[in-house]
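Run: sequence + NAP -> complex structure.
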Amino acid sequence: MLTVLFADRIENWPAYEPALTTALAEAGIDAKLVLPPADPATVDYIVYSPRGPVQDFTAYTRAKAVLNLWAGVERVVGNPTLTQPLCRMVDEGLERGMVEWVTGHALRAHLNIDFFLSHQDGVWRQEGNVPPLARDRSVVVLGLGALGGACAQTLAGLGFQVTGWSRTQKTLPGVTCLSGAEGLRAALSRAEILVTVLPNTPETTDLLNTETLALLPKGAVILNPGRGNLIDDDALLAALDAGQIGHATLDVFRVEPLPPEHPYWAHPKVTVTPHIAAETRPASAARVIAENIRRFEAGEVPLHLVDRSRGY
Ligand SMILES: NC(=O)c1ccc[n+]([C@@H]2O[C@H](COP(=O)([O-])OP(=O)(O)OC[C@H]3O[C@@H](n4cnc5c(N)ncnc54)[C@H](OP(=O)(O)O)[C@@H]3O)[C@@H](O)[C@H]2O)c1
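>> structure
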């Protein structure tokens, strides 16, 4: 019998215990679920989250893998005590959440919904306020992985002109795919709505800075559900104040929770959402965990193995 340690916040145990029990049984895995402080030397797999109680893996000498419940791995990938393979979470619940958050906020910007919400004053403002059709609106998605790729395809399905950008060249139906430094410049220069779904790595830090923000069409809208490190905050605030950027809806920040005194909270052109774009859902995540344990036990290639040299 395998021993699987659940090392997320204890508040999440009531939801994950039945989900993992069911998923492990369905995958045909004979396993016992345990909680910290179970004897580390008995643990075969660690179901991990950066908010959980286990951040030092040294004593887990028998563990065959660390299975992250989060899509992002920046808080664990450089952990010097981590010698086991690390898998990140890619699941249908995360993907649907991200697609819905991005689509909702893209449509909000596209239809100028904020304008009408703040002008319910009896004045009939038809002139100049008919929104263009989606096919006449250019949306750019930076990051075409599990989440960004799904967002790009959904936006393309709604009719938007969608351009995507990633490290390696991709092919996605209905999406103009670019890569490389020139590709980034070309993508930014057409981004009326810019969506950033990149991971936090040294290469992506401050990708949106004074110089790159200046490449966007004047008044562009930014949606960042990726990671806070992607944006130079001072540069964004200056670009918002100058009118270069029309609005930013930000779900992720360099420091979370975003401190109450941070200028984003009070800025009239910023919407803060509290890292809720895409949440891991226990039922679908448990199936991914169970499938990965099955794969490790069978000697098969695991799902969503993190490339630690790339950092994602
Ligand atoms: N706000 C939330 O609630 C929430 C929830 C889940 C995830 N997230 C964030 O979303 C991120 C993306 O998740 P995912 O599952 O889509 O990740 P993923 O499948 O690993 O995709 C990452 C994408 O970013 C691209 N990329 C990475 N580094 C790059 C670089 N230096 N230059 C250009 N492109 C680069 C990758 O390109 P290649 O494919 O060519 O390598 C890939 O297309 C996560 O890392 C996490 O930070 C946020």
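>> summary
The chain has two domains: 2-91+280-298, 95-272. The mean pLDDT is 98.
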